[in-house]
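Q: Could you fold this chain for me?
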Amino acid sequence: MPRVALPAAEEGEYYWDDLTGLAVLNRSGVLLGEVRGITQHGAHPLLRVARPPAAPGPERLIPFVAAIIDRVDVDAGRIEVDWGADY
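A: Sure. Below is the predicted structure, expressed as structure tokens.
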């Protein structure tokens, strides 16, 4: 289905495709990586975040829930989260 055929997302709602590629930063301003995709695991979606080259390691799975997601700014290309760099 072409994107133009979809209704506009409501305030605070996002199409998963809009989140793919966004940078993920924690409250300390540490770059945790980039959203590579989103997967649904029953209770809530999980952001699949690829770590940046400077901090290689396994993909992070960050719950896409209000308690963790502080701000989504699609225009700025970033998601701010309450998530430790060592998680």
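A (continued): The first strand starts at residue 23 and ends at 26.
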